[in-house]
Design goal:
8 strands; globular; about 15% strand; N-(1-d-carboxylethyl)-l-norvaline Dehydrogenase, domain 2; alpha/beta; about 280 residues; Rossmann fold
């Protein structure tokens, strides 16, 4: 395996591309938007510079990772990929379309993975003619720093596909955790309802947002309060995961998403941020 294709250059896609490039793979990072790709490339370079300045990468490793990263708006450039990781917007029909197109583009033996945080992998696999080679790789944000990757096996995922994906995850310096294909998988099945309950506490006036976050930080030893974390994840993403899981989202959460207050990425969520 020499070349990895990454589809989607948002926060997750660019982070995945970075760790793949750092691990020595040639990377094709694809997106439909040229400006987003340029932004992603600059973000990866900045992140690599910071890691090098802190001694976590050598200058040679930094430079090689930058050389390994290629950006493109041409879907056909993914053709040479030996493994593909999709990290597009969390919309089921979009992901199924991407997988169908990848299926007809790349070599028959290539594994296609999705970074989805909640969409059933079995449904995505059904859009292809290689359901045995479809798997989930749910990276955590920020990808370069977070160790865990949920590996989600669809009902059709073969043992060989699972083994290859585990090996790749370890080569990327991550720790794989294998889970079954069920709504929310493991992390979001536990995390999303907890974040939603924190929003309910705020909506009911049990405490201020600052005190809710502080209570969970010093009372449960969380590195980040739940409302701050919801802003970090994206309130629209939180809402979508709850809906996929069939959980009732907070009315306040729905209101904020409708108002476009999605957290850090829009500059305002439960807190305000400079963009």
């Amino acid at each position: 395996m020499k070349t990895i294709g990454v589809i989607g250059s948002g926060i997750m896609g660019s982070g995945i591309a970075q760790v793949c490039a750092t691990a020595g793979f040639k990377v094709w990072l694809y997106d439909v938007a040229q400006e987003q790709l340029k932004k992603a490339h600059a973000s990866v370079q900045s992140s690599l510079e910071k890691l090098a300045s802190k001694g976590k990468l050598t200058t040679a490793q930094r430079d090689q990772a930058i050389r390994n990263l290629n950006i493109t708006t041409q879907f056909s450039d993914l053709k040479e990929s030996d493994f593909c990781i999709e990290a597009a917007t969390e919309k089921k029909e979009l992901k199924k379309k991407i997988f169908k197109n990848l299926d007809s583009l790349v070599k028959a033996e290539v594994i296609l993975a999705s970074n989805t945080s909640s969409i059933p992998i079995t449904e995505i696999a059904a859009a292809t003619k290689r359901p045995d080679k479809i798997i989930g790789m749910h990276f955590m944000n920020p990808v370069p720093l977070m160790e865990c990757v949920e590996i989600i096996r669809a009902k059709t995922t073969s043992d060989a596909t699972h083994k290859t994906t585990l090996e790749l995850t370890k080569k990327l310096g991550k720790t794989p955790v294998t889970v079954k294909d069920a709504p929310g998988f493991v992390i979001n099945r536990i995390l999303a309802p907890m974040l939603n309950e924190a929003v309910n506490c705020l909506e009911e006036g049990l405490a201020t947002k600052e005190d809710i976050d502080l209570a969970m930080k010093i009372g449960c030893n969380f590195p980040m309060g739940p409302l701050s974390l919801a802003d970090f994840v994206g309130l629209d993403t939180c809402l979508y995961i709850l809906e996929v899981m069939g959980r009732k989202p907070s009315e306040l959460l729905k209101k904020m998403v409708a108002e476009g207050k999605l957290g850090r990425k829009t500059g305002e969520g439960f807190y305000k941020y400079g963009i």
